[in-house]
Description:
With 510 residues, the protein is mainly α. The protein has helices at residues 2-12, 15-19, 35-45, 68-82, 85-96, 102-116, 118-124, 126-130, 134-137, 139-142, 146-176, 183-198, 202-227, 241-260, 279-306, 312-320, 322-328, 334-346, 349-365, 368-372, 375-392, 397-426, 447-456, 458-463, 485-507. The longest helix is centred in the N-terminal third of the chain and has 31 residues, at 146-176.
Amino acid sequence: MDSEKALGEKDLGHVEEVGSDFASSNDGLPIPVPEKLSRWNRTIQSLKGFEARGISRVQPSERESPTLAALVQVAIMWYSANITLNNLAVGFLGPLLFQLGFLDSALIVVFACFLGSVGPAYMAIWGPQSGNRTMVVARYFMGYWPAKLTTVLNLIIMVGYGTISCIIGGQVLSAVSGGTMSVVVGIVIIALICWAIAVFGMKPFHVYERYQSTPLTLILFILIGSAGPHFNTSLQSVGNSATIAANRLSFFSLQLSVPLSWAGASSDFFVYYPESTSKRMVFAMTFIGLSVSFIFVNLLGVGLASGVSTNPGWDTAYSTSSGALLLAGFDGLGGFGKFCAVVVTFGLCSNAVPSLYAAALDFQTLGKVWKAIPRYIWVTVAAIIYLVCAVAGRDHLFLIFQNFLALMGYWLAMFIMIVFEEHMIFRRNKGFDWAAYEDKTKLPIGIAALISFLIGWVGPILGMYQVWWTGPIARHIGDLGGDVGIWLGIAFTAVVFPPLRFVELRQIGR
């Protein structure tokens, strides 16, 4: 694949340039580093296949010519990264948390995943266009300083998803071992594998994503064959019409937030594609890869959850953990079923690795001192953080899903709206100086974007329905409340940003 070549010999040829970030800031001011540490760093970065580059822009001359195979790899990467157990477990929430029937849950999965995939597909086009990572691209829309806020929020998302992957992986490995392996040990195993792949960078990551999707897909179809007869497709939604409508809204928002969460990192993986790469093809391949994978695994999750009400064995497994419920789906296959569960579990790494990779880049985007620390060190820091979080939160998976995912969806929806309006209204006939990603004098001030972003949060505050907060509008939806925070956030941001940006351009000029 061409992107692998760009990450191989060509990129290693720029190790000295990129590695210099270790010893200097963005402004060229020296940061004292012991010589022994510098030599150790150069040795690591010279390893074959190692990606030394952090957030430094990939120059047009460093990229490869586009090929059909490279474009198809976009869809393969997104598909492979998301046919995983953590996404499958989100499907559990329709029947088990929101008490929705099989048909209601399935329809919501399809339409919400389609809509949620649009945002990341749109943001993915900026990778080839700019050669910059997603949160670096954010500086051109949010401004240099306000973009640090979105970077921190995206960092929380990436670490959060790594945490969820580790928890589910630990649960399944513990269930497969019959309890002889603790969940904590399983978490550590998953975290170490993800770290080992992410620390090397894009080349092993793309190879892993390309080849692991086929066996993982086959095993998921085996799961459908094994568990499918126990799906309760006649399961009905619980509650009166107002309550059911509210629960549909809440589950839709949650499902929408899952694919949407990739929007803050979706261009990170395609910066080695040339500027001439078709925007439409990048958008289409990303949309296809995301929507197909999310719909596939979430429908499978809905099916497994629907069977809990009629299958005592599944009910018992679910009372143990989500991982145990998945293993119960392979009941009847004996040792082969346990083997399948283990393979699917290690497939979680395909989701956690890009999250870990993006988290390291987010750390570097926070400032000149942060950038001076090599990417592989930030990968290690992020892995330690989500390992600790996974161990601490291993008994509260559904609570993490319910609160974390929806909260992240709010800000991303508002961020994408600002990017879209800046692009289509104010930049439609203007280009971007992508080489000026660190020049504060050439980037927007960001006053309009920051104010719009903060005002946009009024929408979620009024419309969110969470365990820890129910907005005044949300509590009037149904008998118990329903989540409309993401829609209100989009509306507030969409209305406020254009006039504020117009004034900013008139008064400041950038």
